[in-house]
Structure formats: C-alpha cells, structure tokens
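seq:
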Amino acid sequence: MPTTTNPLTAATATVTGTGTATATHARAAAPLGVGAGAGARARVAENGRLDFAKSAPKIFRALVGFDAAAREGLDPALVELIQIRASHLNHCAYCLHMHTNDARRAGECEDRLHLVAVWREAPHFFTERERAALALTEAVTLVADRGVPADVYAEAAAHFDDTELARVLALIFAINTWNRVALSTAKVAGTDTR
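struct:
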C-alpha cells in the first residue's frame, strides 16, 4: 500500500448510561465499567473495545503520519513484506489480512505472499535486500528474545543506506505499533473499511 495509511477504525455501537452497549455484532459488547456515569454517552467499537481513532484522534493522526513518513521512498513491495512478516509474528490477523490484500492490489504474486512466513526456506523467492529487511523485521519485532543481533543489523546496513535503513526501522516500529493497536482493541480481520 504505497500511499494508503493504516486506519484502525470500525463501525461503532452506542453505549448507554448503564455501561452496556447496543450493537448488532455477533459478539456481545463488554461493559464499560467505572467512568460511564448516568447519562454519559461514549462511542465504542461493536466488539466492546474502544475505537482508538475516535478516542485518541491526535495520537492516531500522529501514528498515521509516522507510518507515512517511514514508508516514503521505500519500494512498496518491500513495505508490504515487512508489514506482513511483523503481523505474522505478532499474530495480528487484522493487519495480516489488510496487508496481504494491499500487496495483491500492488501486484505482489501469491507465491511470495504464501512464502514470506518461511522466507529462509525459500530464499530464491526474495532478493538479498528483502531477506535482509525480513531478518531485521524479525529481530526488531522479537527484540525481547535476544535484542537485534549485530550480524542481522550489519546485513541490513549493507543493503540500505542510512536514510533507507532508518525508514525500514521506522516502518518496523510502525507496523508493530499498528499490530498492538489492532490486537488491544480486538480488531476483526476482514473489517478494514478504507
């Protein structure tokens, strides 16, 4: 998705003053709890979780801007591969669905989409540059496991100049944040309405 953003918005349900939501979604909405005083009305997603874009619009816009700045000048195919791989690792079905569809619309082939999760076993489907970015994506996404190994960073630095490498890192930071927003607010795969 070269020029699109990653808006995590959904249809909303109205919360009554009693703290319960009325919605037509198949999943029951959870009560809001303390803070939903009598007569107070709030907007939440149909799944009972807050709608991040509506609840924190300034933060949401900043994240959209960060995401757009990160991808600027990067190959759109590489952008999608990074976003897909991080979404695999984070088990984010919402973002995985969104970015595989974006990649298809941008002309990505099915073979590469199916193999990105196991790119080490099918290296001939990906360029050296893409493999370096995928290894860096995995290291940064799983940073708590063993940090970012020097050899992984060095390989990425060999394939990207400093500006590109900074953008690749920023894109990895951005998709990891989007994954956490989607997972925390229980976004449902296939409901992207951009």
